[in-house]
Amino acid sequence: MSTPAIKSQPIYAELEWDRTGTHHILFVSAEDAALAQRLLSNPPGGTLTVVHLRPADDSRSAWSQNLPDTALYLETHTLAEALEVLRDAFYVAQMGTRIYLAGAEDAIWQASQLADTFGVSRDEIRHAQLGTKARPVFCVHCRTITRGVHTNIVSCSGCGRSLFVRDHFSRRLGAYMGFQIDAEVPGEVPAAEVVYP
Amino acid sequence: MSSASLNVEIRRIRDLAPGIREFSLSRTDGDDFPVYSGGSHIVLSLPLGERTHRNPYSLLGDPTDRKTWRVAVRKQEDSRGGSRWLHEQAREGMRIDIAAPVNLFALNRLGRRHILVAGGIGITPILSQARELARLGADFEVHYAYRAPEYGVFVDELEALAPGRIHHYVQSRREQIEFSSLLAGRPLGTHFYICGPGGMVAASMNAGKALGWPESHLHSEQFLAPTGGEPFDVKLTASGKAFTVPSDLSLLEAIEQQGVDAPYLCRGGACGQCELEVVDASGELIHHDLYLSAEERASGKKIMPCVSRLKGGCLTLNL
Amino acid sequence: MTIAFKPDETFRGTYTYRNSPKGIRRFPFPFHQDQYMYSVNMEPHTKGPEGSVFENAFDIDEHYIAEMRDRAITLERDPGRCVSLPHMMDAEWDTLELIMESLSRDYPELFTLTKDGDRWHWVNKPLGIDQTFTFGNAATLPCPPFEYITRQTQGDFVIMDQRDNNLFADSGMITSQADWSLMFDAGMSFMEWHGPVPLAHELGVFERALKYLLMLQQGRPVRRLNWTMTINPRLDTSPETYPEWGPDRASVTPDNVGDKVHLRVELQALFRLPRSNGMLFSIRGYLASMNELATYPRWAKRLHRVLSTLPNELAEYKGLVRYKPTTLEWLSKFDDGEVLPAGTQPE
């Protein structure tokens, strides 16, 4: 794990259970069979709630198998639905709960914003980036968030400007900063490269 | 003085309970006090014979009262003089210096619910926190444990602040706080604050941790009274002083007596402000503070002179 | 002291902003030595020499009225330059109290504050404001208290909330910044907020600064200077409006350096706030063109040396890369190689 150049960029540690917690809420929105196997085969003490966002096909998911008997498994099919289920879970959750958010940055940071509204502190929540490295990008000019950005330069879905995607990240907005790359010399836009596959 | 100081007059002394007195202070220059945040403390400079003795006390009144500040002091039987002076020598009309408020026990303003716990004289910072929460219209409750009914100081003020949300635990009636049930089943976003005797604070922290509470939601305040100890020698490299710390003075007090200006804030081992660099120590560093990490202690390079000492030999400090 | 305000000068379009000779004389030139590097250069924010920018807690100068109008224009175009998270209301009132008390104490001929309990009467003569309100009741002011008072005070402002042994940038009035976005950075921790600053993290600067600030006491504010460069005397150099001012960086020529290139110095001060235990961070900016600075050749020489030895990472971060060579060339005319004593004082 390399140290990011900009300190606001999240560092994602390998996801582990925080066994000092006594209740656990896991939100997963991406497949990672090895991680699922590692986590679910050695569950933490206390209650475990798994909120799973999965495509509505009948493919098998590592996250729905090998669940401990005591786990509460909640399947959802859209991010909006997953966030509603998470809201209910947070509403009834008690102090001692640890929250684990695993998946694409867009999904996990939207879930994280929701946890913030419940007064959850940073030592109660863990984030893990799984699957796509695509970024949500906040345009500082028009304040639209363009989601699923794979390239270092992207056309803003709000104002159409060519935005350079910085490593500067806002947890409050759940997005990276984008600013017009050709502001100093209009039209001087380098070719975009896929850097967030 | 290391801290912005104010001269105040002791306006009123009230005996609240056996061994507990309240002091009301007002400024001698006629100006208003600044407001302060709930949980703040001030340091009183007390004239004990030839030397000045500085003790921290929590402000317990209404944080928005600009005319009067109040502190309450319990007489410590093993006192080196501070609380005894306040109980035996202090008189209404006397003037003393105090340092501007510092808050090492602040409320978390993102908290959605607050549980305040006081043991005995630990009620003082809890009272100003409760006033602040009441003013903000926040969701809070107070749990107050004391020795016997006559020791339940400020219960009337508390009841007036938050009727129905004050819970009493009277030791003489064999009532005590069961922290594992008090802290169980609390909703996300709850914060816990405790001020009381060391054993009580430790019991609550242990119960909280066992229930999975994270550190960021467990707040405690404890001031350590500097304990005396064996005399030891000190050399200060920058100011070129060499002297002996007598058994009844803290290292910080002995440094101040030499006329050397050393930094400090809380004088109770909590804030970290008085940290000094140890150049050499022939003898064992006896750390009493709540600030240094285990690693920092093990390094032997740092000491908090407000509460910590050396056992035997000579201590050389970069000051 | 009377201040001759220049109410009509502009910070956009016609750019008629200029410093009077007295204004140049008091410019807080920040370079003590021929080289620059980040450090925890904080000192007590105590009363400085009469007439200097350090004389008062919040400095008011000849640009006051014009700067406040420019702020109003920026807010009109983009109300998001003032952000305050909901838990900051006590800190907002703290800030209003601190500023009103300081200004009325330090500039009694310009500002007056009279209190009858919670009933306060505020008069701001330069801006023609006369307001009676109830302290603590936001409904009695035309806008929230933090926005109200910072629309009347030169400089940008951030209020930090202290919790979890950290400081969070949870409120701000930012209309004259060195290219950072309050809307984006609001709510960040101290380290996150300063994330984009190069080199300083590795030097441990922010770690030490944070530790120091967490223990900042009431009534004991501290200050430091920071600097960057700006093309044209423009206050609103925000990321939001980068497309408006970015092209100016490519407009510098040997003929217009003296007028266009400005040294921009921030007098940053930090105040512990009493009722919220938060911290007010004031960022008071001063602009001087190269021509104005060069009226004191010692400053021109010093700036020439600082710029020529500035690490690339810093030049890039401060956005100087495009026009640094032209500026250096222009400044070199002043630099005869004379050994300069340490210090910032002009001739």
From TrEMBL, chain A:
Keywords: 2Fe-2S, Flavoprotein, Iron, Iron-sulfur, Metal-binding, Oxidoreductase. This is Uncharacterized protein. One of its GO terms (molecular function) is metal ion binding. It holds the Pfam family DmmA-like_C. Residues 137-178 form the Dimethylamine monooxygenase subunit DmmA-like C-terminal domain. InterPro entries: DmmA-like_C, DmmA-like_N. It comes from the Bacteria. Residues 5-125 form the Dimethylamine monooxygenase subunit DmmA-like N-terminal domain. It comes from Methyloversatilis universalis (strain ATCC BAA-1314 / DSM 25237 / JCM 13912 / CCUG 52030 / FAM5).
UniProtKB/TrEMBL annotation, chain B:
The keyword Iron applies. It comes from the Bacteria. Pfam families: DmmA-like_N, Fer2. Residues 232-319 form the 2Fe-2S ferredoxin-type domain. Signal peptide: none annotated. Residues 3-108 form the FAD-binding FR-type domain. GO terms for molecular function: 2 iron, 2 sulfur cluster binding; metal ion binding; oxidoreductase activity. The keyword Repeat does not apply. Keywords: 2Fe-2S, Flavoprotein, FMN, Iron, Iron-sulfur, Metal-binding, Oxidoreductase. Its cofactor is FMN. PANTHER family: CARNITINE MONOOXYGENASE REDUCTASE SUBUNIT (PTHR47354:SF1), NADH OXIDOREDUCTASE HCR (PTHR47354). This is Ferredoxin.
TrEMBL record, chain C:
Pfam families: HODM_asu-like (PF11927). It comes from the Bacteria. It comes from Methyloversatilis universalis (strain ATCC BAA-1314 / DSM 25237 / JCM 13912 / CCUG 52030 / FAM5). This is DUF3445 domain-containing protein.
